[in-house]
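Record format v2
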Amino acid sequence: MRVHLRPQRRTVELRGPRRVGALLAELGILPGTAMVIRGELLLTEGDVVDESDEIEIRAVISGGA
Amino acid sequence: MKCRRCGARAEVQLRAHNTAFCRPCYLFFFRRQVERAIDAQRMLVAGERILVAVSGGKDSLALWDMLADLGHDTTGLYLGLGIGEYSDRSREKVEQFAAARGLPLRVVKLEDEQLAVPGVAAATRRAPCAACGTMKRHYFDAAAFAGGFDVLATGHNLDDEAARLLGNVLRWQKDHLARQRPVLPPSHPKFVRKVKPLYLTSEYETAVYAFMRGIDYIVDECPNAAGATQLLYKGALDRLEVASPGTKLAFVKEFLRSAQPAFAAVEQREPMECAGCGMPAYGVLCSFCSLVREVENRRARTSSALPA
Ligand code: SF4
Ligand SMILES: [Zn+2]
Ligand SMILES: [Zn+2]
């Protein structure tokens, strides 16, 4: 599956199905700090993503002030 | 995972609230959270004119969307920071948002005043975010007063407030703690009330709302954010939150309930008027005018050092 990380503008290719929670852990992303988007839908940690999926992981943090 | 309200497939899981929602139920939940915060803190009165500070990011656009949707009289204020492509694109997002909804928008650009953030930071040897914050506060306050608005609303979320609180506590900044509240009544006739209707909704919750509402916000970060201390505090709080969901909410809520009033009671400084711009100030010059003076001095020195 292709996973697009935003705003990092990085794409990673992963093989095999897994739960969203495991995917986030693999990528070192804390739960609650990013939205996991497939098409028009948001996924929760228990959802399974597989080989043919195209996923966007969009960080929600912002700021600096 | 299923929606706690209707049993449909859940799109969002909220550990801090120990719940999960489908899209329609989440939108209902989020809206009610914000409405409750507004009512409980008496942030807004029906019919008031609200100036909404918008950056093009998810929080401020979600806030504007929500306030307009709740039927409030809102005007957006976008302050162009002069941070290259990031500022250009964030302005486009705001302009598109306002145009699509027919909402009034005012645009002020710091570069038109020769005060773009990178130049000011370099001239004053300050961190960009420090210079940026001082200028934002000044322009928002001044625009709210000059425009005759009743309220200035900003999109600060729970994570912003928790990170700011942590920073203030780590340095025991009593004056800052005294003023860290979701509603700041005007301490001077030239100040308007300042409100933060999203102060109890997390960054994640706000992002989900923006996504579900189809708000096209700027996902890219300001290039200056990377080294900012606020992000360091947010990262630390995120780890605490994973280990113990609800930590951020309790940190901010309990501060406001049990500690903030004590800080507010001892900090009673009344602002005077700035000799430079006439806006409220705690010294002869407000912090914005001091900053501008530094920039001018620096520019005068550099230009006089140039060979004739
Ligand atoms: S990250 Fe810093 S410089 Fe950039 S907009 Fe935020 S406060 Fe301003
Ligand atoms: Zn539902
Ligand atoms: Zn001034």
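The domain at 31-269 of chain B is CATH 3.40.50.620 (Rossmann fold).
DSSP finds eleven helices and ten strands in chain B.
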